[in-house]
Each structure stands twice: as structure tokens, then as C-alpha cells.
Design goal:
By secondary structure, the protein is of the alpha+beta class. The chain is 26% helix and 23% strand. The longest helix has 30 residues. The N and C termini lie far apart (78 Å).
């Protein structure tokens, strides 16, 4: 009588077939187990729900009067939204680009001339410029003024004077309606 672990004399390769099956089955279980064990770790690298919620913000522009500015928060940063007056628009459009340190026409910075949307962080050292309130100093060019080091921005958020190297950033935004925007 043949021992159960020795191959049967009449069936060549039966042991090799059984061995391959066990190898593949064990490998499949090991890969599945590893994937299941790693899933919580991999999933923890996804952004949290509160971060995803901050990735875009909708803002109703109806309550903002001409000449008024508001500040909203987007991705943890202040965003300045100004309903510009015709005088502010004219001042922004009449600037000669060769006079600017970071030349950008106003038409590239405002999708609609009456609405200006900017990230309210000074490009020098990350301060928050003044100019959102009507009582705030707005600098020599009627836009925003960073009192920390004296950067002056115009009515298009372009750097005109002081140490800031670049204009206030324009975030990615779209008009959903004539009076609603989505930032981000």
C-alpha cells in the first residue's frame, strides 16, 4: 500500500499540480489579507470631509453694495471680494502696464469689471492688508495697504509700492449666476 504523501505511480505530476494550487490559493489569501490590513492606513491619507468642504465656497454677491468689500474664508485664507465703483474700475483700467512691478491688465484680474476677487494675503510676508473696511487706510493707490512693511496695492490688487514682490493672488472662481460665485 502506498503512503498518502508519495505520488501515485499511475498519475505523474499530481503532486506538482496540488502544490501549485496551494501556492496560488495561499498567495491570493495573503494578498487579500494584506490589502484589507492596509486599507485603513491608505484611506487615512484621503482628505477629511471638513477639508473637502473647504475646497470650494459659494458666495452670494447680492448684499454687497457698490463700493463695499467683504471677506470670506476659503481654504483657511481670507478672500477679499470688492464691488468696485466706476471710479475704481476706471483707475484700475487706466494704469500703464510698464509702470507695474508685476504687470497684469485689470481684465485678467477681474472676470466682471465691477467684481474683484482676491486672496487677501500680502505677497511679501503673508500679512493681511487693510482696506476692506471703509475706515481702513487703502494706501496711495486706493486699494489695499499692508502696514507691516508698507506695501500699497491698487484697485485691481496689483502691487504699486513697497516690498511685496507680486500682486495679490486671484483665486480660481466662476460666476454661477450674475450674483453668485464659486471660489475653488
Amino acid at each position: 500500500m502506498a503512503h498518502p504523501t508519495t505520488p501515485s505511480p499511475g498519475v505523474p505530476g499530481e503532486d506538482a499540480t496540488r502544490r501549485n494550487f496551494l501556492l496560488y490559493a495561499t498567495s491570493a489569501v495573503a494578498v487579500s489579507g494584506t490589502a484589507l490590513a492596509l486599507w485603513p492606513f491608505i484611506h487615512s491619507m484621503n482628505p477629511a470631509a471638513d477639508v473637502l468642504a473647504l475646497s470650494s465656497s459659494e458666495v452670494d454677491l447680492k448684499p454687497i453694495a457698490v463700493g463695499q468689500s467683504i471677506t470670506v474664508t476659503w481654504r483657511g485664507k481670507p478672500v477679499f471680494i470688492r464691488h468696485r465703483t466706476p471710479e475704481e474700475i476706471k483707475a484700475a483700467e487706466s494704469v500703464q502696464l510698464f509702470d507695474l512691478r508685476d504687470p497684469q491688465p485689470d481684465s485678467q484680474r477681474a472676470k466682471k469689471p465691477e467684481w474683484l476677487v482676491l486672496v487677501g494675503v500680502c505677497t511679501h510676508l503673508g500679512c493681511i492688508p487693510l482696506g476692506q473696511k471703509s475706515s481702513d487706510p487703502r494706501g496711495d493707490f486706493g486699494g489695499w495697504f499692508c502696514p507691516c512693511h508698507g506695501s500699497h496695492y491698487d484697485t485691481s490688487g496689483r502691487i504699486r509700492k513697497g516690498p511685496a514682490p507680486a500682486n495679490l493672488a486671484v483665486p480660481d472662481y466662476t460666476f454661477l449666476t450674475d450674483t453668485t460665485i464659486r471660489i475653488g
